[in-house]
Design goal:
With 497 residues, this protein is mostly beta strands. The chain has six helices and 29 strands. The chain has two domains: 330 residues, Lipocalin (Beta Barrel), CATH 2.40.128.720; 79 residues, Immunoglobulin-like. The protein has a 20-stranded antiparallel β-barrel. A four-stranded antiparallel β-sheet has the order 26-25-28-29.
Length: 497
């Protein structure tokens, strides 16, 4: 479990950024001279969601290898998953002008499946107001092996409708571990592919990542030449402790230290701080430059991520940016993040609110492994966030900056009792001490109540109307499931005050 928590937190350094929250600064990317690109940045703190596509493009090879070593899609023989109730049709992001609150930009993603799940195609579109239609801007083609592992990923960028630029990444595995990754590119569909870069991964005797060599193609010697080496060390409990990067001169066969990242953990073995050391004054002098600290509640849920910048004059850490996490149980809202910046005190900058409109549980989504890995979709407490609202704080008020809507098609799996569903009522909602299930045609069924983590709390047999006692339940959201002959016929959500 600790390993999964660590991976989740590490992913926050390279996660998907919804267009709503473009909170940037000079700390986000490489400096003006292109000398050094920070691994810990304000951008990594402020992004509201995850994106493994960004991870695959990043230099966070530790998180990338852990993700690909564990990830597999469930391949089908061209047959839809009959247990999936929802199929994602598209994701639409609407960016708003904060002053007028009018839509400034619309973007859209769609997903298509081919060859029984061996190929997944994600297409990106932008809305063209003058032509009143969606115009494709890019496409990502994911290819999976027979074992369900990511085999290759091809990016197509549409410069014009008839001209595309291509980049393709390939992934090689041995004994279930990622051992090689290489990329190629071409600037037209008729061009030949050109080699760009190659990475080689090596592991210790217990399959922990030990070293990554980054290479580029040397056209003079016609070979791959290493230019960067990453090494990883672990603590006594098996947690990653230190990541060290070196620039490597393959001609002189000399390496020089580039940066060092140190991970520390609290008494519960949860990730506590990540500190980045960069080159200072003098040879082999590396100094702390920035760090991210994580805070947790009593249930070990993350409550805050705070970025600190080292002040060389004060010789101390100064707060810079933080993101707070809140669980919500009001109407359809299930989660919220709040971004703040430090200027003698914490000032609100941006907020992202997550809603569950359709009360979808992750297991009900078609192609769920792929959707949750490679599309900007999140779930909280086993409920899918299918609507997101982003806000920015300006002149003492919150302004809506964007909305993200997830559009699903609801399937009709074989075995659903449509006549029974027609007159089923679950009320009152919100409830206090009890909730009733009514349905004139509903006979011989099971009624199950779960908390949002999926833990079963109530299990009753029904034959006609049923009244459930909720007096032992705390005030919160709950899931209620109706099953008949072992098959789910209804899943809904209710709020207990």
């Amino acid at each position: 479990m600790v390993k999964n928590i660590i991976l989740f937190l590490l992913f926050t350094t390279s996660v998907f950024m919804l267009p709503a929250q473009k909170y940037q600064s000079d700390f986000d990317t490489a400096d003006s001279l292109g000398i050094y690109e920070y691994r810990l940045s304000k951008d990594g703190i402020t992004k509201p969601a995850k994106d493994k596509v960004a991870l695959l493009k990043s230099s966070d090879h530790f998180s990338k290898s852990n993700f690909l070593n564990q990830f597999k899609v469930h391949l089908k023989s061209g047959v839809s998953n009959s247990s999936a109730l929802w199929t994602l049709d598209s994701i639409v992001v609407r960016e708003l002008n904060e002053s007028s609150q009018q839509i400034e930009n619309n973007s859209r993603q769609t997903l298509a499946t081919q060859n029984g799940g061996h190929m997944m195609i994600v297409k990106d579109y932008n809305w063209v107001n003058k032509d009143n239609h969606w115009l494709i801007s890019g496409a990502s083609n994911y290819s999976f092996s027979d074992e369900g592992r990511l085999d290759s990923l091809e990016f197509q960028k549409y410069v014009t409708i008839n001209y595309r630029m291509y980049t393709k990444n390939y992934y090689g595995y041995e004994d279930g571990l990622l051992i090689a990754e290489w990329s190629m590119e071409k600037f037209d569909e008729y061009d030949d592919w050109e080699k760009v870069s190659r990475l080689e991964y090596s592991y210790d005797s217990i399959s922990r990542l030990k070293q990554v060599n980054t290479m580029e193609w040397d056209y003079f010697y016609y070979r791959w030449s290493t230019f960067e080496i990453l090494e990883y060390d672990y603590d006594s409990l098996g947690n990653i402790g230190v990541e060290t990067a070196y620039n490597y001169d393959s001609y002189e066969m000399v390496r020089t230290k580039k940066y060092e990242i140190v991970y520390s953990y609290n008494l519960l073995n949860l990730l506590d701080e990540i500190t980045e050391y960069v080159e200072g004054w003098g040879e082999d002098n590396f100094i702390p430059d920035r760090k991210v600290k994580y805070d947790y509640d009593a249930s070990l849920n993350i409550t805050a991520e705070t970025l600190f910048i080292w002040d060389y004059d004060l010789n101390d850490w100064l707060e810079d940016t933080r993101k707070q996490h809140f669980s919500r149980n009001s109407e359809d809202q299930i989660y919220e993040t709040l971004v703040q910046s430090w200027d003698n005190n914490w000032n609100d900058v941006a907020s992202t609110k997550f809603f569950a409109v359709n009360s979808i549980v992750p297991e009900e989504v078609e192609n769920q492994e792929f959707v949750y890995a490679f599309l900007p979709m999140l779930d909280f407490y086993n409920i899918v966030a299918d609507h997101i609202e982003s806000y920015s704080y300006s002149d003492g008020e919150w302004l809506n900056s964007a909305t993200t809507s997830y559009h699903f098609k609801q399937n009709s799996p074989v075995g659903i009792y449509t006549q029974d569903l027609a007159d089923v009522r679950i009320f009152p909602n919100p409830a206090t001490d009890y909730i009733k299930i009514q349905g004139a045609q509903l006979q011989q069924y099971e009624c199950i109540v779960y908390d949002l983590s999926g833990r079963m709390l109530i299990h009753k047999q029904g034959n006609g109307d049923l009244k459930l006692d909720l007096s032992d339940l705390n005030a919160s959201y709950y899931l209620i499931e109706i099953r008949k002959e072992g098959k789910r016929i209804l899943m809904d959500r209710f709020l207990k005050y």
